[in-house]
Design goal:
The chain has 24 helices and 21 strands. It has 694 residues and is of the alpha/beta class. Among the domains are: 83 residues, OB fold (Dihydrolipoamide Acetyltransferase, E2P); 208 residues, Rossmann fold (3-Layer(aba) Sandwich), CATH 3.40.50.300; 158 residues, P-loop containing nucleotide triphosphate hydrolases (Rossmann fold), CATH 3.40.50.300. Strand 13, helix 13 and strand 14 form a beta-alpha-beta unit. Helix 5 packs across helix 7, helix 7 packs across helix 23 and helix 19 runs antiparallel to helix 20. It binds adenosine-5'-diphosphate (ADP) and magnesium ion. The site of adenosine-5'-diphosphate has 16 residues, from helix 10.
Length: 694
């Protein structure tokens, strides 16, 4: 019994195969998993609070005598029980109750209750408290804080508590191995693992509840550090296994490149040159490039991607470019066609919306190798797509794809039509700059390049926040801009995921604006339009035949219309800072001074205010990403909300960001041998999929 990592939960009393399946939903398969299933919070049932000392919003145990129990008819029927102790009286209120429950509250009986006091109509009340009848013998008063665990259907709090106690007893007999050499731990976190686990499952009375609630207790931090380390090690492992794979070397084809560059109306920025050289060096090697290209909106990533593509095509291989949306795929197709077709390169397109016949012919061109560059959405990686000597995959706006897709792609890329057992190189582009600490841990398997310079002549965007109560003034402003021959975007945001609801909201707004803004040519674009309709609208807007484009957030990424100099974003408080920055980047692409109006709904929360303020103050995507991390958490930045990717049991990337440098130091230490690394990864990542189902 000395290794709980190998002891199945069914070894515990009261756990059969059926219950084990329920526990599996909590990613608990072994007794060790159970020990790592930590409480969300704690209840202090170690002492009884006098009724007069209760505070609103605080959980407490009280004990007293029932003075009355009546059904009262207020706005909602409820059972009200008056409970009295030596210090005072309080009401217990039940909105749902049975006759038996009511009988339990006989006048004169003694009750012990646990619950949160809240302000009610008649002073403090306890809603639906847990109650226990006090007989001749007083009920046990626990000596430790009571843990509250994350649950799933079919498991009760009481049952998990019982199991945790059983697991702790086994811990005493040997149990869970210490995988981190003590000397590697920072002095403040030299907490033996077993002690940390014991403490967290049953903290002693008087433990610092506030500290535990915020997750910064040394026992919690000790575990968070280990978990972050395990994730980091697994990404390093991925990187290492990647370097054992072969890829086709793609040397520079100088004539082709010179031809390409000489046709551009501008020259590359210094940052574009530097980053292109980094990519060229990777591509010349015979192991797959895994590079993340970061650059603020408008920094010119597409051009860098085109240069990379030329290396694949110049070497006689195929290149795929994947975009997150159809609109963006379409725009890339147009850009790449305009740049590459004059060089005699053939560009194909694969999106979900192609007609059957078109699709067949594009698929045939891809399979025969007639198509040299293929642009598409994720439809690119469906099984019926057979590439012909695919050497490079370029992924745009990677935050929409997530780590999980990144892994999948690597596997699929290897499986589909590359020469022999070679794997294609990968270039991943993102306009959502990732703070350094996060990048180093969440993307430890990637190399990073940063375009930290915008093309010359860009005008800063003037951003203002205006309350929706002044909507009229904003409309006047749109009218004014249009009168001066400029174009504008009006972006509608909705919290709902549904494209049809979004489309509906945008349509309503477009109608409203059409009524208010005489003489302004308005068009509407949203995710529900057919691709050719979208294309028609976008082309008309680009050509200046439309003055005001009402859109959903589908225009967020990539769309490029230099004459558009005004953007209105409705309810910006609903979006993340990074997304807002992206949206705003649609204007300020030409030489005219541009403006962005954040038309917020009232009342605006304090955090909402702070976020809009941050957007007004900063024009640099990296600074905004740091603010976003501070105000909203890493989920927003890494796109985890959408894809549910990195799932930590204990660690919280935002709260524990300060542990990351430590994590990197430990990972680099020779004291951590292969076996320890393997075991750490297995402990934290084995039974739980690394990336939750998207
Ligand atoms: P992003 O990095 O947001 O994808 P794009 O690649 O769409 O940016 O580039 C934004 C605009 O800047 C495009 O119109 C592009 O043609 C232009 N551009 C790119 N590189 C340069 C450059 N070196 N000088 C001037 N304009 C450039
Ligand atoms: Mg782009």
């Amino acid at each position: 019994m000395n290794n709980l990592a190998e002891l199945p939960v069914t070894a515990l009393k009261g756990v059969g195969d059926k219950f084990a399946q329920v526990l599996a939903k909590l990613h608990i398969a072994t007794v060790q998993d159970l020990l790592f299933h930590l409480p969300l919070r704690y209840q202090d049932r170690t002492r009884i609070t006098p009724i007069a000392a209760l505070l609103p919003g605080v959980d407490a145990v009280i004990e007293g005598e029932v003075r009355a129990a009546d059904v009262v008819f207020g706005r909602r029927r409820s059972l009200m029980v008056r409970l009295q102790d030596g210090s005072g009286t309080i009401s217990l209120r039940y909105f749902h109750f049975t006759a038996a429950q009511k009988d339990r509250f006989a006048r004169g009986s003694r009750l012990r209750c646990y619950g949160e006091a809240r302000r009610g109509a008649a002073g403090l009340e306890l809603y639906h408290p847990e109650t226990e009848l006090v007989g001749a013998e007083a009920p046990d008063t626990p000596e430790t804080l009571t843990p509250v665990y994350p649950l799933t259907e079919g498991v009760s709090q009481a049952r998990l508590r019982g199991l945790a106690q059983q697991a702790l007893a086994l811990l005493d007999q040997g149990g869970v191995s210490e995988l981190l050499p003590t000397e590697l731990l920072p002095a403040s976190l030299r907490y033996p693992l077993k002690e940390a686990l014991r403490y967290l499952h049953s903290p002693p009375a008087g433990a610092d509840l506030a500290q535990l609630a915020t997750g910064v207790h040394p026992a919690q931090q000790r575990l968070a550090l280990e978990e972050l380390l395990a994730h980091h090690l697994s990404l390093l492992e991925l990187r290492r296994s990647n370097s054992a794979i072969s890829a086709p070397p793609l040397p520079v084809n100088e004539a082709l490149e010179r031809d390409f560059l000489s046709r551009l109306p501008f020259s590359l920025t210094g940052a574009q040159q530097r980053v292109s050289a980094e990519i060229a060096a990777d591509l010349a090697r015979s192991r797959p490039m895994m590079r993340l290209l970061q650059g603020d909106v408008g920094a010119g990533k597409t051009l860098v991607a085109a240069l990379a593509a030329l290396k694949g095509i110049g070497a006689g291989a195929q290149v795929a470019v994947m975009a997150p949306t159809e609109i963006l795929a379409e725009q890339h197709r147009r850009n790449f066609s305009a740049w590459l077709e004059p060089l005699g390169i053939s560009v194909a397109q694969l999106t979900g919306s192609l007609k059957a016949a078109e699709r067949r012919s594009e698929l045939a061109a891809v399979a025969s190798g007639a198509a040299q560059l293929i642009v598409g959405t994720h439809a690119l990686f469906q099984p019926e797509v057979a590439f012909h000597n695919l050497a490079l995959v370029i992924i745009d706006e990677q935050h929409r794809f997530g780590v999980r897709q990144r892994l999948e792609l690597r596997e699929k890329g290897a499986a589909t039509g590359t020469a022999g057992r070679l794997q294609p190189h990968q270039l991943i582009m993102t306009a959502t700059p990732i703070p350094r600490t996060l990048a180093m841990s969440a993307f430890a398997d990637l190399d990073c390049s940063v375009i930290d310079e915008l093309p010359p002549g860009r005008q800063p965007i003037n951003t203002v926040a205006i309350s929706n109560e002044r909507r009229d003034q904003v409309m006047e402003r749109v009218q004014g801009a249009v009168a001066e021959g400029r174009q504008a975007y009006w972006v509608c945001t909705l919290i709902e995921e549904s494209e049809s609801l979004q489309a509906q909201a945008a349509e309503t707004t477009a109608n409203e604006l059409a009524e208010m803004l005489q003489g302004v040519r308005i068009a509407l674009v949203h995710g529900r339009l057919k691709p050719d309709e979208k294309e028609r609208v976008m082309t008309a807007f680009k050509a200046g035949e439309v003055d005001l484009l009402v859109a959903t957030t589908v225009i967020e990424v990539g769309v490029d219309v230099p004459n558009a100099s005004l953007m209105i974003i409705e309810n910006p408080e609903r979006l993340g800072l990074a997304q807002l920055h992206q949206l705003r980047g649609r204007v300020g692409r030409g030489s005219i001074a541009s403006h962005c109006v954040l038309l917020y709904g009232t009342p605006l929360s304090q955090n909402g205010r702070a976020r809009l303020q941050a957007l007004r103050q900063h024009s640099d995507g990296f600074a905004i990403a740091e603010e976003d991390l501070r105000l909203r958490g890493p989920g927003e930045i890494l796109g985890t909300r959408q894809t549910g990717e990195i799932q930590h049991r204990i660690a919280d990337l935002q709260r524990d960001a300060q542990l990351l440098p430590q994590v990197q130091k430990i990972a680099a230490s020779p004291l951590l041998d292969e076996e320890l690394r393997r075991q750490l990864i297995a402990r934290w990542l084995q039974n739980k999929p690394r990336f939750a189902e998207a």
